[in-house]
Design a protein that fits this description.
Number of helices: 4
Shape: globular
Structural class: alpha/beta
CATH class: Alpha Beta
CATH superfamily: Dihydrofolate Reductase, subunit A
CATH architecture: 3-Layer(aba) Sandwich
Order of helices and strands: EEEEHEHEEHEHEEEE
Strand order of the largest sheet: 7-6-5-8-1-9-12-11
Helix content: 10-25%
Number of domains: 1
Strand content: 25-35%
Radius of gyration: 16 Å
Largest sheet: 8 strands, mixed
Distance between the termini: 17 Å
Length: 192
């Protein structure tokens, strides 16, 4: 099975969005360079960010997100983001009324069920868990192998926390660090 990676862009003070669910400048690094990150031509990053991010994105088989993110993005219009094969949505509610049952989205109750379903779908590829409440729940349950953060030089002061409401200490190994333009990419293995 592929490893489970908690991932997200984050402010220097640990937030993935403001109180109003808006990411502010957290994704500005994705348009601050001159190297196209995907075929759209919209995302352009520095060469170090490209080398780090493209390699990671190419390994992701499934993304796990919470229902809140699913609703905020309007379910990505039924198409998983960034060329990912499947999205597993953690929710206590059914799929939205009128949702296309053939869309590669899977609605499950709880993070343990979500990780199990995602690993089944991903095979030996990476299972990405979105940072925030769902990611924090997966970390607290001992289901996360690696934590990746794209740290952006902004301070929010308050908002949605990267680790959600994790209330216990979790040790991480020393980070791998890549410096991009307007972003610091950090990768930590979770200490077992």
């Amino acid at each position: 099975m592929g490893k489970v990676v908690m991932y997200g862009s984050v402010s220097a003070d640990g937030f993935i969005a403001g109180e109003n669910d808006q990411p502010g400048p957290l994704f500005d690094w994705l348009t601050s360079g001159d190297v196209p990150l995907d075929e759209s031509g919209v995302l352009k990053v520095s060469q170090p960010s490209y080398d780090y991010t493209r390699q990671y994105w190419d390994q992701i088989g499934v993304t796990i997100a919470g229902r809140h993110v699913f609703d905020l993005t309007d379910g990505w219009d039924g198409t998983p983001p960034s060329g990912i094969d499947h999205v597993v949505v953690v929710t206590h509610r059914p799929a939205p009324e009128g949702w296309n049952p053939d869309a590669p989205f899977h609605f499950v109750d709880g993070v343990k069920s979500a990780v199990a379903k995602a690993q089944e779908l991903a095979g030996d590829r990476i299972v990405e868990v979105a940072a925030g409440d769902v990611g924090g729940q997966a970390l607290a349950a001992g289901l996360v192998d690696e934590v990746r953060m794209d740290v952006v030089p902004v301070v929010f002061g308050s908002g949605k926390r990267y680790f959600g409401s994790v209330a216990a200490q979790h040790l991480l190994e020393d980070p791998d660090v890549v410096q991009g333009d307007r972003v610091l990419h950090l990768r930590y293995q979770v200490r077992r």
